[in-house]
């Protein structure tokens, strides 16, 4: 037989060709299947089965755009079967095109009502679009058609979880595992559920088990990254996302999670870059717009952030509520309380049953007895199903604030203790290790070291550091200073922390540095902040935790000034304990640990007080500022060597962004109600008072 003799001398029909193409594809002979499909399309360019199979092939090859193009064309063909629309729905879902996905899935089930796959796809799409009750109906119908289908029970569990019924979700996951013990997707989803239940170690183990079963399961990597992010292990979270990106570099969800991690690490430019990469791949992904908004807000690009949040709020998905809250908080930060109030109301109109929105506006109002928001939040905590862990924490802290406003200590501390305990259980903190580290700083920064490297760094009179415990008046001092026309309040920068970290381990490596090292670190810091208000005579870096570096700053930046803010120890700690911080304040969520940390901070600052140059370091007491605003404001302006300006006395009228837990307070004139506030709550502060070495009265 000649090599030129045809293997199939007979003319194949389109039907026969497609049967053969499917056989080749199922046998792993992709090239032969593709050639047959292309031959069919030469004869019948709109043949839906050939277009559909080519679409599935391109999807398997990772060519998502081409896959979607083929299957869209298949759906336009007259007589396209229901499976084509079901496949189109799934591809659109994967690309974040939820509206088109829902339309395609509904067409599939209308065309073939018994097609369980199409109902399953519709249920998942509705779930991702935030239409949870409709999703539940679809998936329960699929479960009635296929009660022994593990995938259906997994999807049903996901919807129960979205509805907040974590018990039914866990039961459905377990049923899926009973049917298929090696079901990687279930272990991945169960990890997310366990994380919400506060079982963090078990959650991480479940996600790792999913990866062990299926090393290509993207969601497992993302869930594990989210778990590590929740306990502030940013390096581990980043590791898992990058592991996913190694085999799926265009995974939009991975890029979004990477942006989230970068925001947590305060690398905002990089976060915005990753978010935009995600949007280039999936322009209609609501959570990509959401994370871009967060990055832009942190970068001070407020109008662009507002647009990103607004876009996220109108796109299909499950982040609309979060986006509306974020937009309202953004308006709070810009000082437009009226607009923020209206934005919260707008959010409640769209989500009228949302206790989360009610809780989120706690810093935008002062509660009085009988406030209906209190009843809404109290009811949400005891409702069935119970709220997810993060929402429960938020509700407890908001209710703690509300009952403190009302002066009901008993109820306030019931909620504050609950909220703090939930938060404290989510991460590791070693108080003894922290104390040893702080003591090490004091031992290294000796008068001899300060004298040896005096003027070693890069001179700068422009930099002013406002330091102290959180909630000690740092924001108030910054706002007074930033009201001066020659001063720019930059907020809580991480520039110094990054510059020091790039140079080595602090404080251990400090004794090994030389003059050039100190100059290089100082230059690194100045380069990071050089773009901030280049015309300003002074730039305020108000990161309270920079007190750890108070001894280092004069060595890095000769001429820079440090303002140490102090406040009554118990008032400071009570204010910390009543706040769910956005950033890392791991010492703040247990009263005895909080008191011990305060003592460590106090000892370190007492040490620095003895060795810092008088012309670069002053201390300001919050209570004194409250009692003598003008005297202390003039003292501050004199310290930073600028002429007096009366605008510093009307600091609450200064229009600038304030990104801090004290955002509401600095929009008000000086008030005295926070002085000695702790005394009316002393009965609930026993562990704190003991740690501070104070007798409870």
UniProtKB/TrEMBL annotation:
Give residue ranges of the TPR repeats. Answer: 116-149, 150-183, 184-217, 321-354
Which Gene Ontology molecular-function terms are recorded? Answer: protein O-acetylglucosaminyltransferase activity
- Keyword Transport, does the record have it? no
Q: What PROSITE patterns does the entry give?
A: TPR, TPR_REGION
- Short name of any one Pfam family annotated for the protein: TPR_16
Give the highest taxon in the source lineage.
Answer: Bacteria
User: GO terms for biological process?
Assistant: protein O-linked glycosylation
Keyword line: Plasmid, TPR repeat
This protein is called Tetratricopeptide TPR_2 repeat protein
Protein species of origin: Enterobacter sp. (strain 638)
Q: What is the lineage of its organism?
A: Bacteria, Pseudomonadati, Pseudomonadota, Gammaproteobacteria, Enterobacterales
